[in-house]
Amino acid sequence: MSTIADNIDLVSQRIRAAADAVQRDASSIHLLAVSKTKPAQAVREAFAAGARDFGENYLQEALGKQAELTDLPLSWHFIGPIQSNKTRAIAENFDWVHSVDRLKIAQRLSEQRPADLPPLNICIQVNVSGEASKSGCSPADLPALADAISALPRLTLRGLMAIPEPTDDRAEQDAAFATVRVLQAGLNLPLDTLSMGMSHDLESAIAQGATWVRIGTALFGARDYGQPANG
């Protein structure tokens, strides 16, 4: 039975191979270990195997793990849908937020980010596949939202995040991720981040420019209870 360390090694090999295939520097592609529904001990094991960045969807679960893991120098990324009443805790306890999709949430995060912390790194989630069940701003609304967020004082807009409709068709994967890349290039802002690609499609995402791949299942195994995928 494979361990978390074994899985991290295998995923790292996949990342390097995917980067080599398109002549990218593998060091420009970062692994975000999606630890939602997994216990703090699994995060410790992943840390021991070299992971430093961890993605969480559910605030209360994440805060509990953070409290157990204060002895480790971890970077925490919020990657789930954000309710207005959760913004203060997110602003106070995370280093990155990948799932901002409306200005009200960004404004609250900016206002509530503690002054003694660095600006909060932000990605705008784009609903690139137009799925009614999925969070994210529309491509049409993206330019105005990006301009507004980039002007907020306690945030640093880093780039875009997307969760395209799942498919095993590589051409369809490539097309969806290429759309995200083109949308970002068209914003005329100093952005350096594309958060896209999960366990089943990281190769396609890397081919289209991903800088963060959000990997859960391939590192930690199946989710522990029925929650929407983000890794």
Structural write-up:
The chain is an alpha/beta fold and 231 residues long. The protein has one domain (4-220): TIM Barrel (Alpha-Beta Barrel), CATH 3.20.20.10. Helix content is 39%, strand content 17%. It contains nine helices and eight strands. Strands 7-6-5-4-3-2-1-8 form an eight-stranded parallel sheet. Helix 7 (170-185) links the parallel strand 6 and strand 7 (193-195). Helix 4 (87-93) packs across helix 5 (103-112).
- The name CATH uses for the topology is TIM Barrel
Considering the protein shown, what is the CATH homologous superfamily?
A: Alanine racemase
User: Main β-sheet, in a few words?
Assistant: 8 strands, parallel
Strand residue content? 15-25%
* CATH uppermost class: Alpha Beta
* Alpha-beta classification: alpha/beta
Give the distance, in angstroms, between the N- and C-terminal Cα atoms: 21 Å
Uncertain residue segments: none
Rg measurement, Å? 17 Å
Give the strand order of the largest sheet, numbering strands 1, 2, ... along the chain. 7-6-5-4-3-2-1-8
Task: Count the beta strands.
Answer: 8
What are the secondary-structure elements, in order, as H or E?
A: HEHEHEHEHEHEHEHEH
Q: Helical element count?
A: 9
CATH architecture title: Alpha-Beta Barrel
Share of helical residues: 25-40%
Average predicted confidence as pLDDT: 94
Taken from the alpha-carbon principal axes, the silhouette is: globular
